[in-house]
Design a protein that fits this description.
Elements (H helix, E strand, L loop, with lengths): L9 H13 L12 E5 L2 H4 L12 H8 L16 H15 L3 E5 L2 H4 L10 H16 L3 E7 L5 H4 L9 H16 L5 E6 L1 H9 L14 H28 L2 E13 L5 H23 L7 H13 L12 H7 L6 E14 L10 H5 L1 E4 L15 H14 L5 E5 L11 H21 L3 E7 L18 E3 L8 E3 L1 H12 L19
Parallel strand pairs: 1-2, 1-9, 2-3, 3-4, 4-5, 5-6, 6-8, 8-9
Antiparallel strand pairs: 6-7, 10-11
Bound molecules: 4-nitrophenyl beta-D-glucopyranoside.
């Protein structure tokens, strides 16, 4: 056959060039010093819910007393059995090649009464054993103090709606810093304050499902932000000089974008929604003025007045607390999964009265991006890039760690959807780092293995490893994404390997 028949016609060559501009990532290599990790949370993986001195927490209570509230009726009694199988966890982490492991401490395991009158030696032993195993594999711990599993005894006193929780949290943090701070150099106080305050107190999407909409959510945020600040100051003044670590908070965003970027009303409302969602907790800590976002204080005041209340349901912090809360995080910890749209002004019909949603005064829509197994999780990588640029400009170019990002499916081992999600979201990180100078220092994938996904039980799966919960020894099977992430951490570069591309997706044939 004459060689010419193999040559590429010029128009094909041009098409390939054009495609490479639009379809392929412009940047693939992560900057020097950028770190990778994966995350879990105690209640979602540990199990051993009532052994070795651990007491009941709010998720034990909800899943036992109201199992119909959990999609598949499961609970965290055994979960992934990490209390017994933590060495398997660490072996998997080592295989993934991560720099750090983000996990959380179970308050009810360390302090069964919730208070410091009794420190449970088995709880301390368990976390020390996990820390030993991580140290042996050279994996840095990044430890969350509170990932939603409040001791039920403290919930019985009102939980985060009770201002006394500021002291209880500080005391709990004190025990953790003292017991583990010689080897934990990175702390997170709270995981996702919005989900705690809005979902668990303002709604019933999370335990303890108080559903005090428009009231309990704001009582919670007052307490939680003060508790965070007190833990920060305790660390900063008492422990940092000896232990030399860092401490931050992880805030979740659903990023809101206008459905029509040309529509000025939608653009303005999207900003209001972002202030209500992310700014609620970020503004008090990461802005120069501090305090709750002005638009939030004003909107709630207006609504409260219309409701005939003598005082607004949310009030600005006084000047003491504004100062005390401001600047209390060494990094901006971001959990990000998804973007939703704002379609216009008005009261969302799903909004109860009063409520956070009604206080915003905007209509939201999820008609954007690709599907996942979770109703709320739409795949919109460009939203992530836009959100990170907004963080840079809104919070004066903070140092950022992505402390969670991930994708749910129903448990397939050939998890091309997850790989594509990671690849596209990581591409956005590279773009904002190199094109916009956003200071992202590290990335945490959610999650090591399929685990107890709160009210979704085990019906939505976010893990690198598939976990068979019908087997007593909870066997874990690597999904294809394990290989993807392993290649990423080994080369510090987005993997280009064809085997990570979904063969069922139509390819452009040249
Ligand atoms: C996080 N959203 O929750 C939690 O930190 C994890 O414990 C959880 O398993 C994981 O994400 C997956 O759900 C979120 O609506 C809940 O954007 C809701 C949202 C994001 C994260």
């Amino acid at each position: 056959m004459p060689p010419m028949e193999h040559a590429m016609p010029i128009w094909t060559f041009i098409a390939v060039l054009a495609l490479s501009q639009t379809c392929f990532a412009r940047y693939t290599k992560f900057p020097e010093g950028f770190t990778f990790g994966v995350a879990t949370a105690a209640h979602q993986i540990e199990g051993a819910w009532n052994v070795s001195g651990k007491s009941e927490n709010v998720w034990d209570r909800l899943s036992h007393s109201r199992p119909e509230m959990i999609a598949d009726g499961t609970n965290g009694d055994i979960a992934c059995d990490s209390y017994n199988r933590y060495l398997e966890d660490v072996a998997e982490l080592a295989y993934l090649g991560v720099d750090f492991y983000r996990f959380s401490l179970s308050w009810a395991r360390i302090l069964p009464s919730g208070r410091v009158d009794l420190i449970n030696p088995d709880g301390i032993r368990y976390y020390n054993a996990l820390l030993d195993a991580l140290e042996e594999k050279n994996i840095e711990p990044l430890v969350t103090l509170f990932h939603w599993d409040l001791p039920q005894s403290l919930q019985d006193l009102g939980g985060w709606a009770n201002p006394k929780m500021i002291d209880y949290f500080r005391d709990y943090a004190d025990v953790c810093f003292r017991e583990f701070g010689n080897r934990i150099k990175s702390w997170i106080t709270f995981n996702e304050p919005y989900e705690i305050c809005e979902d668990a107190y303002g709604d019933e999407k999370k335990a303890p499902a108080i559903n005090s909409h428009g009231v309990g959510n704001y009582l919670c945020s007052d307490t939680l932000l003060k508790a965070h600040a007190e833990a920060y100051h305790l660390y900063n003044e008492t422990y940092r000089p000896m232990q030399n670590g860092k401490i931050m908070i992880s805030i979740n965003s659903i990023w809101y974008e206008p459905q029509d970027p040309e529509n000025a009303e939608q653009v303005a409302l999207a900003e209001v929604a972002n202030q209500f969602k992310f700014g609620w907790f970020a503004n008090p800590i990461f802005t120069a003025d501090g305090g709750y976002p002005t638009v939030m204080v004003e909107n709630v005041a207006r609504q409260s007045q219309a409701e005939g209340l003598p005082k607004p349901r949310l009030e600005q912090f006084d000047s003491y607390w504004i100062q005390r809360i401001k600047g209390t995080s060494d990094f901006l910890g971001i959990n990000h999964y998804t973007t939703h749209l704002i379609t216009g002004a008005g009261v969302d019909y799903s909004a109860q009265s009063p409520s956070w949603l009604k206080d915003i005064g905007a209509i939201t829509s999820m008609e954007v991006g690709g599907d996942s197994a979770s109703e709320w999780l739409r795949v919109v990588p460009t939203g992530f890039g836009n959100f990170l640029r907004w963080c840079k400009s809104t919070y004066n170019n903070p140092a950022i760690y992505i402390t969670e990002n991930g994708f749910s499916d129903f448990g397939t081992l050939q998890d091309y959807g997850r790989i594509q999600y990671f690849n596209d979201y990581l591409t956005e990180i590279l773009n904002v780092i190199y094109d916009d100078g956003v200071n992202v220092l590290g990335y945490t994938a959610w999650t090591l293995m399929d685990n107890f996904e709160w009210r979704a039980g085990f019906s939505e799966r976010f893990g690198f490893y598939y976990v068979d919960i019908t087997e007593p020894d909870r066997p874990r099977t690597p999904k294809l994404s394990v290989e993807y992430f392993r290649q990423l951490t080994a080369n510090r570069e987005l993997p280009q390997d064809d085997r990570f591309k979904d063969p069922s997706k139509t390819r452009i044939e040249l």
